[in-house]
Amino acid sequence: MKKSLFAFAGIAMIALQGCVWSPGQYLDPDDFEENTTAEDGNDASVNLVKITPEVVQKNQTTIFTINDQQKRELLSYKPTAYRIGPNDLLYITVWDHPELTAPSGPQQQIDANGRLVRADGTLFYPYIGTIKAEGMTVEELRAAIARRLASYIDSPQVDVGILRYGSQRVVLSGAFKTAGEIPVTGVPISIVQVLGQAGVATEVADLTNLSLRRDGREYILNIDSLNRPESWLYAVYLKHGDQIHLPYNDQKKIYVLGEIKLPQAMTFKATTLNLMDAIGSAGGLAQETANAEAVYVIRGVRNMENEKATVFKLNAKSPASFALARHFMLQPQDVVYIGPASITRWNRYINQLIPSATFVGTGANAKYNFSQ
User: Fold this and answer.
1) How does pLDDT run across 90-129, given as a tens digit for each residue?
2) Where is the Outer-membrane lipoprotein Wza C-terminal domain (predicted)?
3) In the beta sheet, which residues pair with residue 90?
4) 224, 250, 276 — which closes off a domain?
């Protein structure tokens, strides 16, 4: 029995040497190269950066925004009169000549009397034969038909309307409720109207990375800004051939780990998510076990060989830290880690130590009893 007590005491003495080792995750600031600018030229693979007002300000300026040239390019497009194209279905009226207006009979549905623009851009019309309609506006086609009918009808009164638009379209893909093709019609349509028509799956969409492909170029738009007074997206009109992709937010995650009430991987669909919101959404710090002085934001890099990962540290023990956390913006794939308090590490160590000591004591007692 004495041997078991001595064994337990020996193990406890080792543990008391500053808690050299304890189970679970723990970040030791001594493992990092501390640097408030995170731009020095040393060889450390990770920088430890204290979150200060200066760091918060710099972190905010890294948020992506579309540049002025791209903005001007998008706003410079102004819709013009619709140009007829293949697969458009036209309704041509010649007043006082129902045999030309409705050759299938007035009792038929209006589509049955429509004139389809063929794949080569032409259509056939009585008396005048084949006419090239592709590329014309409605007014230009009306005038052309009236001019050619004048050889057969005295002062023909012609009207042209479009029953169905089939030649021009924009394509939507991604996190829309109704993805697919949307026709471009004679009524100008803005990107905001298309979003409303297709419906955005807001719970799974990444609202900050809408991709608009036009004429071989790509524009990344933040539709989360639509609720801001200065938003200019309402003035962006779409044209034939535009491709719109709204990505899902499954890759836009923040991982909140450590001494937090609800550890989780959370997605965010808006422009930004600040450190305070992330901690609050995870239930806040575990008051009984967390070390408020050890709030970390671990931010990796794409090329670990040439770039340094950064670990931001916040001392959340002071009231001023809440203001810093409120303005410190997180980025996708950031890891928010809350370290354990020293007593927490000690208690966990003891909880694992006692069963081991009990086992040692049991073995020592058994050996003593056998020896007797």
Assistant:
1) 999 999 988 888 876 665 666 778 899 999 999 999 989 9
2) 343-363
3) 115, 162
4) 250
Confidence of residue 37 (pLDDT cuts 50, 70, 90): very low
The enclosing domain of 141 has a CATH number of 3.30.1950.10
Q: Would you state the structure tokens that stand for residue 49, as one six-digit string?
A: 């950066």
Comparing C-alpha atoms, which of 273, 275, 341 is closest to residue 314?
Answer: 275
* pTM (predicted TM-score): 0.66
CATH number of the domain encompassing residue 206: 3.10.560.10
With a cut of 70, say whether residue 271 has pLDDT above it. Answer: no
Instruction: Give CA–CA dist 118/120, Å, rounded.
Output: 5
Same domain, 123 and 98: yes
Q: What angle do CA 139, 140, 146 make, to 5 degrees?
A: 90
Of the candidates 166, 177, 189, the residue with the CA atom closest to the CA atom of residue 242: 189
Structure token digits, residue 43: 């060889």
Say which residues have a Cβ less than 8 Å from residue 155's Cβ, sequence separation at least 6: none
Q: Tokens in use for 234? A: 């309402």
What does the pLDDT read at residue 316? Answer: 85
Residue 331 carries which side chain, given as an amino acid letter?
A: Q
- Two tokens, residue 60: 């905010």
Give the tens place of pLDDT for each residue, 353-369: 665 545 445 554 544 45
Crossing angle of helices 2-15 and 342-371, rounded to 10°: 160
What is the spatial distance between Cα 58 and Cα 38, in angstroms, rounded to a whole number?
11
188 vs 184: CA distance, rounded Å: 8
Query: What's the number of domains the chain is made of?
Result: 4
Neighbours of 147 (CB within 10 A): 12
The partner residues of 267 in beta bridges, in order of sequence, read 253
Identify the bridge partners of residue 158 per DSSP, sorted by sequence position: 94
Q: In whole angstroms, how far apart are CA 128 and each of 120, 269, 332?
A: 17, 58, 63
